[in-house]
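ok trying this again, last paste got cut off
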Amino acid sequence: MQISVPLPRRAQKARHEENKLAKRLRGAVGRAIGDFNMIEDGDKIMVCLSGGKDSYALLDILLSLQNKAPVRFELIAYNLDQKQPDFPEQVLPEYLSKLGVSFHIDAQDTYSVVKRVIPEGNTTCGLCSRLRRGIIYNTASKLGCTKIALGHHQDDILETLFLNLFHGGRLATMPPKLLTDDGRHIVIRPLAYCREEDLIEYAQVKQFPIIPCNLCGSQPNLQRQAIKQMLRQWEKLYPGRIESIFRSLQNVKPSHLVDTGLFDFVGLKTGAPTAGEINPVFPPDSSCSSDETFL
């Protein structure tokens, strides 16, 4: 007869916090999937694994949701071995085999191409990502996958927004669901509502076998890192600002921007209702009127 020994109070508290974290992440992923109709019955989803914390969490959470989902879908883990120096190529196959997950590993030396084409000291991300995308899309077609799942989270989405704003002169980011330019693939980002700090903690709890990236991770002067630091500083000084910025991406009013391709300013006439009525962000007793807020 086995006698169960209760966990010490500290261990019980730690277990409780871990369960809360897992539930919070699963809930965020479930909401994103539902809001954007990311997964449909019969989907075959290629889950792209880099060996980083985010893609491990993505696969882990999708596996946990798969058993409870109201629709039937298949998962296949995918990794592109880009032949970076000292890449531990056995780590992912061993991990995925233990999980009992179907997987496909591609070995293509994009590392040498990037190092040959990009001058020393310059950012490699642009070319690396283009090469990687092409290979991923072609492989998805060969495997008969209907969706491609990537591990970008809420912080990634906000960082991309400000990168485009500051350096690209456009108001755009990576969407939770995307149809590729050729119309052949749908890319989904189920972690769109997840915060990076939660994913860092989740990776520690789960003890994922993290594989560092020696190509992009060795570039300390990336603009994305500067944006990340800016957002962290904002959140430290003004708690809740990150959530507020993210909510703004879900509450876009073209009639209060300046893009004539999104709103018919030329045809705007008095007496006709518009699609973007003023919704003041300041309360009525604020020193700013609603007109002053927007005009």
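PB: full thing came through this time. Strands lie at 43-48, 73-81, 103-107, 147-149, 177-179, 186-188.
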